[in-house]
Amino acid sequence: MKPPRNLAAQPLVAVLVPASTGWGRSIIKGVAGFANRHGPWHLHVAPEGEQKTLPHGWQGDGIIARVSTPAVARSLLGIGCPVVNVSGITLEGVSQRVPRVFNDLQATGEMAARHFLDRGFSTFAYVGPPKLAYVREHQEAFAAALAQAGHPCHALGLNPGLETAGRPSRLIEWLRSLPKPVGLLTWANVQGRAVIDACRRAGLLVPEDVSVLSGVDDALLCECCMPHLSAITVAAEQIGEQAADLLQLLMERKPLPPTPIRVPPIGIVTRQSTDTLAINDPLLVQAIGFIREHATEPIRVEDVLRVVPLSRRSLERAFQELIGRSPAQEIRRVRLERAKHLLATTDLPIPKVARASGFGTGEYLAKIFRQATRMTPLKYRAVTQLRH
Fold first, then answer.
1. pTM across the whole model
2. Hey, which end of the chain has fewer CB within 10 Å, N or C?
3. Do residues 222 and 249 share a domain?
4. Per-residue b or e along 247-263, where b marks 16 or more CB atoms closer than 10 Å to that residue's CB
5. Which domain covers residue 332, as residue numbers?
6. Residue closest to 236 by CA, chosen among 344, 135, 103
7. How big is the CA angle at 96 (ends 90 and 102), to the nearest 5 degrees?
8. Number of domains within the chain
9. Nearest one of 127, 173, 120, 128 to 149, comparing CA atoms
10. Residues near 178 by beta carbon (within 8 Å), at least 6 away in sequence
């Protein structure tokens, strides 16, 4: 590796991440944010990503890239400056030489499973490109979380070009064959939009028959289909931030973390494609709907009983049988999810987060939060939100 330039000058850093996706654009934004706060750095951004050759004679101080193939790895390492990888792709012999920051696929699969289980689904499916190891990791994490709850997971390999390649019948026939209703996770919004389109042609309702969740959110593309596609918010901006931090350490020849950095997802953007409950009991649906609409208010189980004609014992039994929680636990769960969203996406002080999520006080929020997550609200904010 060549000796570093004088870092008192502006470091020259190449960012080779495709800007064609929301994931890539957010990573670039995270790198730029770090560079503006801790630099300044002079950034060379290639919107085409890692496939774009650096300018002839480029003499930079570091590279942040999606290292997607051995050829890309050889090319970048041959330049002779520090490289940080933001790809979830594990390359044998490369991962040990190039530090990596990437999306935690295990946590993403578990989050998706919980999303559907919380909505009362008992049938589940997965769709993604079949030959990619990181997609299989995503699918297996989803299936393992479902297996812990006692449910199998159907799966179909679907490459991005399948629908336009003249073979739509395979997807349509498979969707028709699944027991309904089914909660279906896809690798990304490409497959999610293909599933929604196939459901339309198959005469299946989304989300009533097939509830569809994308493993990665891209707001523009997820809202370009009807119904709009729910998706998991990957912490891509934080991945860019942490990749830039690692590169700073490399350029200064300081010690690095001993293992790759897995960044957990922030949460789920619930749009129309999963906005449903897979429950046949209309009174229970009414009770759950009331809780989700009013949980941020100071409601109690007695308030739920005022809107559904059930005894407390019948309501408790129905909740336990169909969603595995009591009404009080469901109120607390909805409030907790609201608090997590506010912690991850805003800078509201903890007392205001507590009031806005229905917990009343910061002390009570902290108590429930530690019980549920084994961390304080401030710690959760630190690991899910970029701090500017």
1. 0.79
2. C
3. no
4. bbebbeeeeeeeebbeb
5. 282-384
6. 103
7. 45
8. 3
9. 120
10. 123, 125, 154, 210
